[in-house]
Structures are given as C-alpha cells and as structure tokens.
Amino acid sequence: MHGVKLFLFFVPALMAALSIGFGSVHADPAKYPQYAQQTLPAGVKPEFIKLDALVNEIVNRRTPIMIDVRSVEEYQEAHIKGAISIPLGEFESRVGEIPRDRPLVLY
Predict the structure, then answer these.
(1) Which of 1, 2, 91, 105 is deepest in the core (most CB within 10 A)?
(2) Which pTM was predicted?
(3) Beta strand 65-68 pairing with 84-85
(4) What DSSP character marks residue 54?
(5) Band of residue 99 on the pLDDT scale cut at 50, 70, 90
(6) Can you tell me the distance from the alpha carbon of 52 to that of 16, in angstroms, rounded to the nearest whole number?
(7) Nearest one of 56, 61, 57, 54 to 107, comparing CA atoms
(8) H or E segment to which residue 73 belongs
(9) Hey, what long-range contacts does 27-33 have (CB within 8 A, 24 or more apart)?
(10) Rounded-to-5 percentages of helix, strand, coil across the chain
(11) How far apart are CA 68 and CA 15, in angstroms?
(12) Whole-number Å distance between alpha carbons of 51 and 71
C-alpha cells in the first residue's frame, strides 16, 4: 500500500483497552486454516502498534482506519465502534475500497 502505514493489532487487547464492554472475545484460528501459512505480498511491510500508542492516537483524534478482517458473523457479534468489516477472504478484492489518507489497523 503506497503512502499508507499498515498497522496490525490483536483485537482482544484492543477491545479491552477501548473498554467497549463486550465479554471475552477470542479468535478461533481453526476457523481460518487457509490463512495459517500465508505470507505478505512483496513490498508490504507491516508495522505493529502497541496498545498504548493506538489509544494515544485515538485520544488525540488521529484515529486510524480500523478494519475487522474476521467473518461477517464475528463482526456482527462484536466489533470496535467505527471499524469497517472486510473479511480476510474478501480483502484482496476489496482493497480498492480502503481510503489511503490515514493509517490502517487490521484486526
């Protein structure tokens, strides 16, 4: 992604930090075996953001675009307020929909 920082983050920690009030939410890697051994495309270099840094960005109104890559059902069950749902299986075909003017957080 040209000109856009890509941040990856784990949803349970983010949800807890943002205090959105959901019960325990855990991803089940057994639901996604097709992604277990994938690697990133050439030229894509993610940066990992720590929880306190992400919270600081949000508090200072520099909220990144948050994309929930879980299934539609998981998104409907619980998600971060304002997050966009783009399931991982659809991500490549929908990447053109993602604004490029802000950093991204995929969870």
Answers:
(1) 105
(2) 0.61
(3) parallel
(4) H
(5) confident
(6) 12
(7) 54
(8) helix 72-77
(9) 27/70, 27/74, 31/71, 32/88
(10) 35, 15, 50
(11) 12
(12) 23
Contact 55, 20 (CB under 8 A): no
Side by side, the strands of the sheet bearing 84-85 are: 47-48, 6-8, 104-106, 65-68, 84-85
| Residue 35 pLDDT greater than 60, yes or no | yes
Q: How far is CA 97 from CA 25, 35, 39, 60, 94, in A?
A: 27, 22, 22, 25, 6
Q: Is 51 helix (H, G, I), strand (E, B) or coil?
A: helix
- Token pair for 63: 């909220």
Measured distance CA(91)–CA(67) in Å, rounded: 10
**E strands in 5-83:** 6-8, 47-48, 65-68
Question: Which of the four pLDDT bands, split at 50, 70 and 90, describes residue 84?
Answer: very high
What's at 44, amino acid-wise?
A: V
Antiparallel, parallel or unpaired: β 84-85 and 104-106: unpaired
Residue 73 region by backbone torsions, left for phi larger than 0, else alpha for psi between -120 and 50, else beta: alpha
